[in-house]
Amino acid sequence: MAEIPVVIGSRAFDELAGCAQRLGAAPVLLIADDNTFAAAGQLLQAALEPSGLKTRVVLLHGEPRVAANEASITRVLAALDGKEHLLVALGSGTLTDITRFVAYQARLPYLSAPTAASVDAFTSFTASITIQQLKYSLPTKQAAGVFAHLPTLCEAPAAMTAAGFGDMLAKLTALADWRIASLLTGESCDPVIYARAAAAAQVCVEQAGAIGTRRAEGVAALAKSLMESGTCMVMAGSSRPAAGAEHSLSHFWEITHALRGLPESLHGEKTGAASVIVAGLYEALRGLTRGEAERRLKAFRPPEPDAEAAQLERIFGGAASHILAAGASFFGKLRAQVKDVGAALLARWDEVQQIAAQVPPADELSALLEIGRASCRERVYACV
């Protein structure tokens, strides 16, 4: 799949208008919420005006914020009225997910105009959609281009920039997970994609101070790294270059927060906090001998299906049946793989330890999150 154009700078919206003209004469449907339209809506409309393309705006609303759910998707589909449009997402992760899901379902092109460097979703091809309070990762259309107006990114709420930084730091554990999965199960781990994803994360580590103070060079580096992360997912055909155990924790928190009516935190806040937990697990792994690992593996027994179902019922209540149905093959595969993965772990113990040694200690990740103003573990954990 060819890489899409990505423009980050002060003239990004002019470039978007040029791309819109090249895509055809269909009217533009600009999808935003009150905050993102206030941040850049008039500026984007002014850039589109000379193109001669008719532009309409759909403003989405939600409490406490817009959600990528059935209501938002239906609102955009209704605005299309069955006609051809070029969709433009003006916003961050949620508005991007809504727009690209609609673009996929309606077979329409769309362009992304980020208003914050908050997620790595802008260049990828999946969307996190909430259906009946459960999160699903669904296939969508990739943007025909991403055009990020740098002054707008620099003026975005500090929490959103911090969330983008937290999501990039999460790659430090996610990439180790990918390599170990490849080592133990034979899963493909492309070295070129791995290197690109790792380099993008390292740029953010080096720019942590500039990102934390939202200097233009730091925000630009963060935005570029987030776009690169999304591109790596497209190249790999999966989220592996960007998501591992820390994203599983984040998704768990998202579901439990929604089911309990608890206040929601930003995606990157959760993945950043979760990466500290996973880094701690890697530290524990580094502290084990091969003999101790073998003893623990011999003592381990995966939960029986009935016990597993009962535990899910305790945690998720009435939603447990949907989770079990959606993940039936996943749970079965895990149970079947336990013995083989354990044997592979012992056989390749030294290589596993070499990978684990490359994960920063948990306190080092915590310190980086503090520098990048992305430390929010107490707030995230308080909602669990």
Describe, in plain words, how this protein is organized in 3D:
By secondary structure, this protein is an alpha/beta fold. 61% of the residues lie in helices and 11% in strands. It is built from 19 helices and eight strands. The chain has helices at 12-23, 34-48, 70-80, 93-106, 150-155, 158-169, 171-185, 191-206, 208-212, 216-236, 245-260, 267-286, 290-299, 305-316, 320-326, 328-347, 349-356, 362-371, 377-382, and strands spanning 6-9, 28-33, 55-60, 86-91, 110-114, 126-131, 134-139, 146-149. The strands form three sheets. The protein has a four-stranded parallel sheet with strand order 3-2-4-5, with helices on both faces. Strands 1-8 form a two-stranded parallel sheet. Strands 6-7 form a two-stranded antiparallel sheet. Helix 2 (34-48) links the parallel strand 2 and strand 3. Helix 11 crosses helix 12 (267-286). The longest helix is centred in the middle third of the chain and has 21 residues, at 216-236. The protein is globular. The two termini are 39 Å apart. The mean pLDDT is 91.
